[in-house]
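Reading a protein record of the kind used here takes little practice once its layout is understood. Each number in the token line that follows is a code from a learned vocabulary of backbone shapes. One such record is shown here in full, so that the layout can be seen directly:
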Amino acid sequence: MTKSDEAVASYRNRFTCSAAVLSAFSGDLGLDPETAKKIACGFGAGISKTGNICGAVSGSILVIGLKYGKTVAEDDAATEKTRALVRRFIHEFTEKNGSINCTELLGYNLSNPEEFARARDSGLFVAKCTPLVRDAADILEKIL
């Protein structure tokens, strides 16, 4: 099973998009998937239904940081590598999907309860978010 398949399966099992992406990669990077799901939970739905950055993107940024992030104060090269990969990820995700902003990607402001309900009831989270989770994981597999 690919990482993107794992992420999609996790998302379909009712974990947030951010948790699905981070947990698919976490085990290989020294973080157990259960803890990863907890860490990333609040980033789903455009950072907890605030209409901000897509949770699949947030989860991906967490994966990049987990793999390459700075752990020693003097290791500025790790910071630069992490930032470069995050920029590359964002560029590729935006090229494919047009944005990294949840509201722009979905066409609904999830912070508005009525719009959230319409998005949910329309099946948008399955139809649109599932491919976004897959895209995020596919891009990560390529750039890691």
